[in-house]
Amino acid sequence: MKPPFPKCFKKETKPSKFCPGCGQSIILKMLGEVIDELGISSSVVYGCDIGCMLLSWDFFDLNTVQTHHGRTVPTLVGLKKANPEFVAIAYMGDGGAYAIGSQHFLAAAHRNDPITIIVANNTNYAMTGGQMAPTTFLGEKTTTTPQGRSFESEGKPMLGPELVRFINSDAYVARGSSLYPLKLKEYFKKAILHQTNRKSLAFVEVLSACPTNWRTDAKATIEFLKNLEKNYPLGEK
Amino acid sequence: MGNGVIVEAALAAGAEALFGYPITPTTEVLQFWAEKKAKNKKLIFMQAEDEMAAGFATIGACLAGKKAFNVTAGPGNVLAQDPFSMAEAMRIPIVVIIGQRGGPSTGTVIYSQQEVLLTTHGGNGEGFRIVFSPTNLQELYDFTIEAFNTAWTYFFPTFVLTDGYLCKEKSIVDLHKAQKVVKPKPIFEKGKVLNLRNCYDMEEEIYEKVEEISKEFNKIASRVVRFEEYKLADAKYIIFAHGSVAASCRVAVDILRQKKIKAGLFIPKTLSPFPENQIKKALLGKKKIFVVESSLGQFSMLVQSVVYGSSLPFFEYLKPALGIMPEEIVNFVKEHK
Amino acid sequence: MKKKDLKILIAGEGGQGVQTVAEVLAQAAFWEGFWVSYIPNFGVEQRGGVSLAFVVIDKEKMPVFPKFDTADIIVVLCQRAVPRIKRYIGKNTIFIYEKSMVDSKRGIGLDLIKIAKEKLNLRVFNMIVLGILLNFVKISQKNIEKTLIDVLGVKFKKNKDLKELNLKAINLGKSLLEDKNEKLAV
Description:
The complex is a heterotrimer of chains A (about 240), B (about 325) and C (about 190). With about 240 residues, chain A is of the alpha/beta class. Chain A has a single domain (about 15-235), classed as Thiamin diphosphate (ThDP)-binding fold, Pyr/PP domains (Rossmann fold, 3-Layer(aba) Sandwich), CATH 3.40.50.970. Chain A has helices spanning about 25-40, 70-80, 95-100, 100-110, 150-155, 160-165, 180-195, 210-215, 220-230; strands at about 45-50, 65, 85-95, 115-120, 125, 130, 170-175, 200-205, 235. The N and C termini of chain A lie far apart (about 35 Å). In chain B, about 45% of the residues lie in helices and about 20% in strands. In chain B, strands 2-1-3-4-6-5-12 form a seven-stranded mixed sheet, with helices on both faces. In chain B, strands 9-11-10-13-14 form a five-stranded mixed sheet, sandwiched between helices. With about 190 residues, chain C is α/β, with parallel strands linked by helices. Chain C has a single domain (about 5-180), classed as Pyruvate-ferredoxin Oxidoreductase, domain 3. Chain C has helices spanning about 20-30, 80-85, 110-120, 125-135, 140-160, 160-175; strands at about 5-15, 35-40, 50-60, 75, 95-100, 110. In chain C, strands 2-3-1-4-5-6 form a six-stranded mixed sheet. The longest helix of chain C has 18 residues, at about 140-160. Chains in contact: A-B, B-C. The interface of A and B includes residues 60, 68, 86 and 103 of A. β7 (about 170) of chain B pairs antiparallel with β2 of chain C, so a sheet runs across the interface.
């Protein structure tokens, strides 16, 4: 028997527009199940950033706003301030979170804004064809680092969750992986409850498969994801 | 001062949230609002990390059904085009007060009329914005109230385009109660589902979307447009000006009339929608057209697009980022009459 | 013919208290029943730089435009403000300047800084300027005090002597020009 769709999925927009093997299918499925189990779908406002996540604008049967690049966090911060009863979930990629939107997640960490931020980290700008991203690791080849990212020219990659933890001791901070969906689901549940019960920031980064731009087959994709754990340690911070 | 007038007007109009970033000449708006918030817990205030965050937070608050506004100026106005164009595309009723200052770039902190095109047509859109231009503090008060009502009636981002002179000016204003306060409606509601986006796949989709918004905008234009005609009925020379410069022109027209020169003034008080039909009518019987502005022709472009086809001589008095005194205007009209 | 309105331009350096003078003058005139407008004009520096204040006081109606072509009275307190205010000097403009800072061959030169230092305190130098201007606008002592408390009240709370000091400075300023004002007062 096939596992059922989460109730908060929009059936009419399936199959989704993600590439085969994209980590987002797993991320959003786990998120959907958590929303179902917590019974909060009528209160959720789901914001998605530019990048492959913009394809999720009609993914859920939830109030959704697709925003400009890097601006999902401030939009939901304003929304949450105006009506704290909404459950605000900001979903973005490593580019939106750590490059063009970096000042926003930092400010949210400083302010301890009571929203839940989920960052899908696939170490590249996927929708535009695989350019370097803040989380491209040293030596990784992308279209704008054809010889591999070097410390001298591009600096070290960004460790988002660690940075949030450094700034904010109250937030819930974790890093999961699309390789371990059930663990991820646990993190998501805690992340949402941290917003609703603790009225505090929750930040979960997820290592997310991107076979299209990694140019990997199924086996190699799993290897790639496992290797990423060396640069980006998993677990609650 | 003008910045305080803005706060009083916003409160009179039922505004509950302000998001902004300190920038001269509008900084005091944040300070006054923060003081109001200290006494009224219902109010929402956030000094954001930059103007983009401020604009997007304003959008978020509107989505949640609160009347929210933004203030910025000059380089902040440039950054804020990011959220403004999203509000335009998604019909979100943000209200924004712009205090024009010298440009381009950091320019001066004082005054200009150089953000006309940026405010009416900034971002990568087609200008689906309502823009008021007040000529004095009383109009700054009245139009700010009207901006909130207009935004929440027609759902277009609505701007009050003022300048550093008015923001910092202290004078006497009637802070009357608003005649009408439109009730805000939440866009996102618990229990209902709306999937909002601004990104499309095919050319045809975005074309249709733009056409749809355009139709709506044109439909409401006649209800929203504002203008004033000053001593224009029997005038031979028609002067076009807006904002603070129009106030200076009123004085200039009086002086010209004293000198038996039949000048009259047409003041567009909404720059978008622009009072095209009224301008075309006003041209009848006039001999020469004058445009006066503190920019290198941004307002003039708006006027020219309407008077296109007219054979009347056209004279521009352009002083980018410089205040224009009545005497200069008088001399210019005398020189070219 | 008695003038119905008065256009005053005060010019100095950031930190000399130009805007405070203008603000107190405008607000006191408002309480007295005049129509007023005031706008500041300055650059980005918090100190130094040129600071201008335009005040229009009208007996009969609201000033239509807060700036003007020609000032009735100009007060200049530093040399670097001089090029900025030249365009506002007209045939009948009364030109008052601080002798130790400004080089001028015309107008009324006063040693305001010296007077402030010797008789009161350099910090209330700007209030002497206010006193001088009050020769041209009739405002009751009551309204002046009311305005001072409004504008500077926070500072007065910290130092009880400040209010008296400011009032003394204003009176001193008034006395410096008493005989030269009949033609122009509103």
